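cron nightly-structures :: item 1 of 1
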Amino acid sequence: MRIRYFSFILILLLVACKKDRAPRSPEAALLVFPLENSECNTGISINETLSQVTFEWQPSANTQTYTLSVVNLNTNTPQTITTASTSASLSIQKGAPYSWTVTSSNNDSDITAASENWLFYNAGPQISYPPFPAQIVSPVSGSTVQANQGNQVVLQWIGADVEDDISGFEVYFSEENPPTSLLESTDATEMEVTTTVSSGTTYYWRVVTTDSAGSTSDSGVYDFKVL
């Protein structure tokens, strides 16, 4: 009986040890610099068109490596770099709007964790900047969606501006690509519109943001299909 009892205890201990050794998923990093919706003017000038910017973030738990992704919003061109540090430098275009995120990972887990997505303008020769291109929230581009009982879909986006002086948005929506039909104009506080759709149809839409100086930016074309 004693042998069976000790064998049972040993099995319990082994199971407990295996649970303790279960891989822990990484947590999302907190971004530090460049600041959200800001002008980054601390880069090192490389030439007339490029400057080197150092991106910084806080360490996250259970993380061995970080992948920094920086996207030029004018061209939708991404740059990525992977590092074990909590900072990394990239050469990016002066005067252009960018988004940046950091993805945390470790070798013991297949799960990764993404930080928030921050926008900034890399400092350039201009004194003022147009609004950031609107960030589309819903429907996700390329997705298939279900209309509500009234055969309607809600279009949602996020707008931001360095000077915080957005005056309004224009939403273009149609079955043609690119969409040229103005669906609705909204003020700076309203970042969603509702539109009537038909089942089995693919729609294209984009958002043009305007600030108080009359400067504009275009989100680019997004699409979705209705079930």
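cron nightly-structures :: done
The first helix runs from residue 2 to 20.
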